[in-house]
Amino acid sequence: MISKFKPTWMIPVVYNISPSKLKDMGIKAVFSDLDNTLIPWNNPDGTPQLREWISELKKNNIELIVISNNKHSRVQRALRSLKLNFISRSLKPLPRGINKALRDYHLHHKEVIMCGDQLLTDVWASNNANVRSVLVKPLIESDAWNTKPNRFLEKLIWKKLRNKYDDLDWQEDINDRN
Q1: Which of 91-95, 112-116, 157-161, 174-178 has the lowest mean pLDDT?
Q2: Most distant CA atoms of the chain, gap in Å
Q3: pTM here?
Q4: Is 29 helix (H, G, I), strand (E, B) or coil?
Q5: Pairing of strands 29-32, 132-136
Q6: How far is Cα 30 from Cα 13, in angstroms, rounded to an integer?
Q7: Right CATH number for 2-164 from 1.20.58.2140, 3.20.20.70, 3.90.550.10, 3.40.50.1000?
Q8: Tens of pLDDT along 72-121?
Q9: Sign of the CA dihedral running 156, 162, 135, 95
Q10: Using CA atoms, how far apart are residues 79 and 141, in angstroms rounded to an integer?
Q11: Other C-beta atoms lying within 10 Å of the C-beta of residue 130
Q12: Are 30 and 113 in contact (CB under 8 A)?
C-alpha cells in the first residue's frame, strides 16, 4: 500500500523540469496541480519563472493542463492570465481528473506526467491512474486550511516511504528512469 505514495521523481520546483527533456522522453502533456505547485495558494499571479516555463513547454509542443480539486470558478480565476486548460473538481486522490484529461486530450498515460506538491492527493492520484508523478516542494510554507490535515498525514507516510525505499532523493531535473 505504501507504494501508492511513492513519486517517480522529486524535483524542488516544477519550473526545473526541462521541456526539451520531456520532449525527448515522448511527453506530450504535463498535468499539474495548481495551488503551491504552479502558483502560491494565496497569490493567483503567476511568477516570471512560471511564464517562462510555460513558454518553453509551448516551444516544445507540450501542453500544460491543470488538474485541481478546487471548484471551477476558483481555477478559472487563477488561470485567467495564464490561459491554461484545466480540469476542476478532480477528486484527487481518485484518478478521475487525470483519466478525464487523458480522454479529453486523447493522450496515453505514457505521454504525460503529473506534478504536484502533495503525496496524499497528487502522487496517489498519479499512481492510481498509472501516470508517472513528479513531487515538488510547496512554493510557500503555509497551506490553505483544508490542506493542513494532509500535511500531518504526509509526515507519517514519509517515514514509511523512507524505510522502504532508498532512492527518494531530490533531483534538479527529471531523468529517463521509469
Answers
A1: 174-178
A2: 43
A3: 0.90
A4: strand
A5: unpaired
A6: 14
A7: 3.40.50.1000
A8: 998 998 888 888 999 999 999 999 999 999 999 999 999 999 999 999 99
A9: negative
A10: 21
A11: 12
A12: yes
